[in-house]
Amino acid sequence: xxxxxxxxxxxxxxxxxxxxxxxxxxxxxxxxxxxxxxxxxxxxxxxxxxxxxxxxxxxxxxxxxxxxxxxxxxxxxxxxxxxxxxxxxxxxxxxxxxx
Length: 99
Fold this sequence. Notes:
This protein is of the alpha+beta class. It has a single domain (2-98), classed as DD-peptidase/beta-lactamase superfamily (Beta-lactamase), CATH 3.40.710.10. The protein is built from 3 helices and 3 strands, in the order ααβββα. Strands 1-2-3 form a 3-stranded antiparallel β-sheet, sandwiched between helices. Helix 1 packs across helix 2.
């Protein structure tokens, strides 16, 4: 899934109109309880969530000082706790990359 998001970045470079429109959809989602939940509100994040019974996912491009891609996928998890854990993982990586 991280490779897919990298391909989205490449696509937006080669085809700016279509690629930026697609990224805009990923940036303006109503689902912000995972990767973006603990990150600063001024950070742009293009991401796509996935939810199934016992499986909570979020894959995104985080436009921090150092752009990075994060893919967190799970299986057999508590669906009430997993979104918070994904947010915490994103914050740990963001803090590491920013320092």
